[in-house]
Write a structure and sequence with these properties.
Blueprint: H1 7-19, E1 33-36, E2 40-44, E3 48-50, E4 53-56, E5 66-69, E6 75-78, E7 81-84, E8 88-95, E9 103-111, E10 116-119, E11 123-127, E12 131-133, E13 136-139, E14 144-148, E15 154-157, E16 160-163, E17 167-175, E18 181-189, E19 194-197, E20 201-205, E21 209-211, E22 214-217, E23 226-230, E24 236-239, E25 242-245, E26 249-257, E27 263-271, E28 276-280, H2 285-296, E29 303-308, H3 318-324, E30 329-332, H4 338-347, E31 351-355, H5 363-371, E32 375-379, H6 384-395, E33 399-406, H7 410-423, E34 427-430, H8 437-444, E35 447-454, H9 462-465, E36 471-474, H10 479-489, E37 498-503, H11 508-519, E38 524-527, H12 534-543, E39 549-553, H13 561-567
Parallel strand pairs: 2-9, 11-18, 20-27, 28-39, 29-30, 29-31, 31-32, 33-34, 33-35, 35-36, 37-38, 37-39
Antiparallel strand pairs: 1-4, 3-7, 5-8, 6-7, 8-9, 10-13, 12-16, 14-17, 15-16, 17-18, 19-22, 21-25, 23-26, 24-25, 26-27
């Protein structure tokens, strides 16, 4: 096939041939040939490349080669080095000036650089009357043209959007050379403001104040302001979000935009103590566990935890398990109480975890649960220590923090249970004088970096402390002092706008309540109903001053209103 050359190349060669007649040729000049390593090159503007010329026979002089571009405005050449200057085409020719017939050419195409274009947002929702700015990054840099598919809904000027009315418009940014474009879909909604308050309920004492804060989105127009109203100013007055209890009773506080475009409310109760008491109790420990379950899991639960209400060891580690599966802790007697059966029927759990062996919860109860269509899984060991390890293994945490308690002191385990549950920390039991083999094996096969040891050497000896990783004691002279010291240790992890109260005289209510306290991100304060301890009162005065809701586990005979009122007198 014959090669086709451009007119510019043919003219160039003709002129060169005519000129070459006058070029003196040495009598000893040997016939040579020249070739290029590439026949076609594609460049972008500003890009370089190199052509290599080969002269035969080998050893022939190359310094006299002539390099010529048929279109220097498009491609510049110097000794084989090419640079693309502008969009277009050109032939690059190399010649041997001593043999005009010896030349080679390469066809070069120069393109504009591929442009890259991005936009900061591809979707937007704007209220009527609001503005927003879109920005575009484009390479190589050039001007951008902006367009709206529906200017009646969204206008655009240099990327600034102005929402006109409800609807949807597509904003398009196009590179000035037309090579690229990007879009943003803008939905314009009614300008109604969404107002939310930091509290939907609040409890005050007479003469006491607290502050409600409002979040408004989108921001109100400059000619609209936020108003505060009370449904009963004699009960609760409000000024700029600051509410004050005036008399016993209740009122609704409303924050409302002055144009009526949005509002939010807070229900406020004014009580003698300044707290809202939620008492969860029944005629016995089993009924109390059911009342706690109903409060925390009103819509049922896929899982439940079952523990004996007659002794504590097998269930002291149960709260973190309950938290993992979002399950209430229910109690059983030697036979399954009817009140517990009724609650399981309401909850409709698919599975129940049984804490302890058949000596604690019989096989008959397990069969009864299976007969109700409930899958059961028993977590047990030959003793209380192995049972705590079985529960810890089910939780599945083998690194981070670990809590170790005396297996014969229930109050410390239940004081820390809601906190351990919320933080996902296993609770394991130990003897006072030595660490049980099952516990030692679990710790050695895990990667815990921190251990909280609850109690002094009268409860857990140093021979146990010394084999635990990075052990720190939380101590106190009695169960009530240790309870408060545990709360102080983890106070930053707690939501103290709510607190749970249980008797320190016996374990069942605190055990059932530990699952609810964890769900509330709160903790349990243990009380002596006969003699309120000063350490407990002082903690309430120091740390529970902003508490609104108090969950009391048990009826008056267990924790009286009188002791609650004393604890929360503000």
């Amino acid at each position: 096939m014959k090669k086709k050359y451009s007119l510019s190349l043919i003219c160039f060669l003709l002129i060169f041939s005519l000129l070459s007649i006058s070029i003196p040729v040495s009598a000893n000049t040997t016939s040579t040939s020249v070739s290029l390593d590439k026949s076609t090159i594609v460049l972008t503007v500003g890009q370089t490349d190199t052509l290599t010329a080969t002269i035969l026979p080998a050893g022939s002089p190359s310094q006299n080669l002539t390099w010529i571009s048929s279109n220097p405005n498009v491609v510049n050449v110097f000794n084989g080095l090419l640079m693309g200057l502008n969009e277009g085409t050109a032939y690059i020719t190399v010649m041997n000036p001593y043999a005009s017939s010896n030349y080679a050419s390469c066809f070069v195409i120069v393109k504009k650089p591929d442009s890259e274009m991005t936009i900061n947002k591809t979707n937007l929702v704007l209220p009527v009357g609001s503005t927003e700015t879109l920005t575009v990054n484009i390479s190589p840099s050039q001007a951008v043209d902006w367009n709206s598919s529906n200017p009646e809904i969204v206008r655009v000027f240099n990327g600034v959007l102005m929402a006109q009315k409800v609807g949807t418009a597509v904003i398009t940014a196009t590179a000035a050379d037309g090579s690229k474009s990007v879009t943003c879909t803008v939905t314009v909604k009614d300008a109604k403001a969404t107002i939310t308050l930091n509290k939907s309920t609040a409890t005050l004492g007479v003469g006491k104040t607290t502050t409600l804060t409002a979040n408004v989105s989108p921001a109100l127009p400059s000619n609209v302001y936020l108003m505060w109203q009370s449904s009963n100013p004699g009960i609760v007055s409000v000024s700029g979000g600051v509410i004050t209890g005036g008399a016993l009773g209740s009122a609704v506080i409303t924050a409302i935009a002055s144009d009526g475009s949005g509002s939010a409310t807070c229900n406020v109760n004014v009580t003698a103590t300044g707290i809202n008491t939620i008492r969860l109790g029944g005629a016995n420990r089993y009924e109390t566990s059911v009342q706690i379950s109903k409060n925390g899991w009103p819509d049922g639960s896929t899982y439940a935890v079952l523990a004996t209400g007659n002794n504590y060891p097998d269930a002291l580690s149960a709260a973190p398990l309950a938290q993992k599966y979002d399950a209430p802790i229910l109690l059983t007697d030697k036979t399954l109480p009817q009140v517990t059966i009724n609650e399981l029927t309401r909850l409709k759990p698919a599975q129940v975890f049984i804490c302890g062996g058949t000596g604690a919860i019989s096989k008959t109860i397990e069969n009864q649960l299976n007969g109700m269509g409930i899958i059961t899984e028993r977590l047990e060991g030959k003793d209380r220590y192995e049972t705590s390890i079985a529960i810890a293994k089910k939780i599945g945490v083998t690194s981070g923090e670990l809590i170790v308690v005396n297996g014969y002191e229930w109050s410390d385990a239940l004081s820390v249970s809601p906190i351990a549950a919320k933080k996902g920390i296993p609770i394991v039991l130990t003897d006072k004088g030595s660490i049980p083999d099952s516990v030692k094996s679990f710790v050695n096969s895990s990667n815990f970096s921190k251990t909280y040891l609850l109690g002094g050497t009268d409860l857990i000896g140093n021979q146990v402390k010394n084999v635990l990783p990075n052990a720190e004691r939380i101590i106190g002279s009695n169960k009530f002092e240790r309870n408060i010291n545990i709360l102080k240790e983890f106070e930053d992890d707690l939501d103290l706008s709510k607190i749970c109260i249980a008797t320190g005289a016996d374990f069942p209510d605190a055990l059932s309540g530990s699952a609810l306290a964890a769900k509330l991100s709160s903790a349990i304060v243990l009380l002596d109903n006969n003699s309120l301890k000063s350490v407990t009162s002082q903690y309430s005065a120091d740390s529970l001053i902003q508490t609104d809701d108090v969950y009391v586990f048990g009826l008056q005979a267990v924790v009286s209103d009188n002791v609650i009122n004393k604890l929360f007198t503000k």
